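Board notes, transcribed. Complex of a protein with glycinamide ribonucleotide.
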Amino acid sequence: MNKINTAVLVSGGGTNLQAIIDREKSGGLPHVKLALVLSSQENAYALERAKNAGIPAFAFSKKKLGSQAAFEAALIGKLEEYGVELLVLAGFLSILSADFTKRYERRIINIHPALIPSFCGEGYYGLKVHEAALARGVKITGATVHFVNEIPDGGEIIAQKAVRIYSGDTPEKLQKRVMKQAEWKLLPAALEKVAAELADS
Ligand code: GAR
């Protein structure tokens, strides 16, 4: 089977990365080779998860590198070194430039913890998304996997899953439910679908 060299880009806890690792281990990602993990935060717990799974992992600090261009050049250096063909943004909280997204057109996917086009775009990440959903009083939220282009959360939608909101929900409770019921299933499934299409193309 032709496997697609895949990098997972992270910034935090890495539970979505873990869901991908677990799915790969159980044979659920036949078209995916987890080749590399890149983090925008040097202290991200996701880096531990990568190491525990034996996946090469590196962190780059935009602050230390001094600019977006230098940060992206560092990412591209590693992506090329490892022959990466497909990128998964799994809680990667740094916005990528149009030059970067064009370079990997239809080869970057992202998980967003809401039903796009609700509660998305610049400034909507992590718990903030769930705070906004609760503040607006919606009764249904969910998660979306989409291709990444130059517009934050603006690329073509690949998959979505709805999740109910209950009275008494806190942002933390809702985040956990969206992860459990939607993100951790949706992202590995969408990744396999996109990798299979690339492998067949
Ligand atoms: C996830 O809920 C992911 O959907 C979200 O950050 C969290 C990362 O958790 N991403 C965004 O908000 C992107 N706009 P994780 O590090 O445990 O996977």
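The CA atoms of residues 179 and 200 lie 30 Å apart. The chain has one domain: 4-200.
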